[in-house]
Amino acid sequence: MAAKGEARGTVVVAGATGYLGRHLVVALRERGWRVRALVRDPARLGFAAEAADEVFTGHATRPETLAGLCDGAEAAVSALGLRAMGGRLTVFDVDRDANLNVLARAREAGVRRFGFVSVLHGAELRRRVPQAEAREQVVDALRDGGPAWTVFRPTGFFNDMAEFFEMARKGRVWLVGDGARRLNPIHGADLAAFIADALGDPAAEGRELPAGGPDTLSQREIGALAFEVLGRPARFGRLPPGLLRGAGALAAPFSPNLSNFLRFMAAMGEVDAVAPATGTHRLRAFFEALREGGAEDLLARH
Questions:
Q1: Residue 7 pLDDT > 70, yes or no?
Q2: How confident is the model at residue 6, as a pLDDT?
Q3: CA-CA distances (angstroms) from residue 241 to 163, 185, 263?
């Protein structure tokens, strides 16, 4: 494995303007890769703009805009995923089809390594959660052959934990089930470093690598930490997983993305999401930064 900063070839980063994608651009550049960032809007690269050697403007959901994306590249890594609950696109348009479009371009160009960010417990969740099913279909395609692949399975991101903080700021944190399910969420910079190191490591080829952060907490403990940082008494409400699943089924014909979100939340109230720990960012420090700067400002910068 090459040392940090050693010169490498070109790596394509798909989803470069997202929470994880921006950190990936920086981490890969620090490790000597020449970074080609796939974006819809270059202005959204934010703090990662200076680390991108090349910006490729295209829409991953529209394959005709991706011609030449991977030409001359040695590797590609995709962090594409749909977060918005509104709009016309669904998780199958983005989490599946957009990633498959990038994979097709990588295969056409003879890219040697491909990294893909899926979800922890994806194989177990795919029949219950549309987002997991969409991403696991990409994993299935990678297993069908070429290029050499690595699948990354994070537990959950710090920017998702910001939702707990905002609920606490408003006065009540809603737990799914009894709030006892445990997870160790990971900061985008820590996961990006983990991915960038693995992408240059031949031993990571053909492997699925789970990753979480240094703090393992229950949902209730995450909520309590948010209240503690805010200096407020903890107040909780409960949402039964069955109720969320039922609401998800009812929402499916009208809002597939809302349906996916509700089903995903139901699943998170029934399984732990704990993976081997990596990185140094602590959730308390993240919440303290949110308290001082506000969630919108912090997440825009980090």
A1: no
A2: 60
A3: 18, 21, 8
The helix (H) or strand (E) run that includes residue 223 is helix 219-230
Residue 5: both structure tokens together: 């900063």
Strands, E assignment, the chain: 10-14, 34-39, 54-57, 75-78, 113-117, 148-154, 173-176, 182-183, 207-211, 217-218, 236-239
Check: CB of residue 58 under 8 Å from CB of residue 15. no
Write down the mean pLDDT value for the chain.
92
Q: What is the pLDDT of residues 179-236, one digit of tens each?
A: 999 999 999 999 999 999 999 999 999 999 999 999 999 999 999 999 999 999 999 9
> Based on the number of CB atoms within 10 Å of its own CB, is 57 exposed (0-12), middle (13-18) or buried (19 or more)?
exposed
Phi, psi of 36 (to 5 degrees): -110, 110
Q: For residue 2, give both structure tokens.
A: 């090459």
Q: What is the pLDDT of residue 248?
A: 87
5: pLDDT confidence band, cut at 50, 70 and 90? low
Q: Could you state, in order of their start, the residue ranges of all structural domains in the chain?
A: 10-155+187-212+275-280
74: left (phi over 0), alpha (psi -120 to 50) or beta: alpha
Distance, in Å, from the CA atom of 73 to the CA atom of 6, rounded to the nearest integer, reads 17
Q: How many CB atoms lie within 10 A of CB 213?
A: 28
CA-to-CA distance for 230 and 226, rounded, in angstroms? 6
With a CB cutoff of 8 Å and minimum separation 6, the contacts of 201 are 1
Q: Beta partners for 175?
A: 238
CATH 3.40.50.720 given to domain 10-155+187-212+275-280: yes
Whether 226 contacts 173, CB under 8 Å:
yes
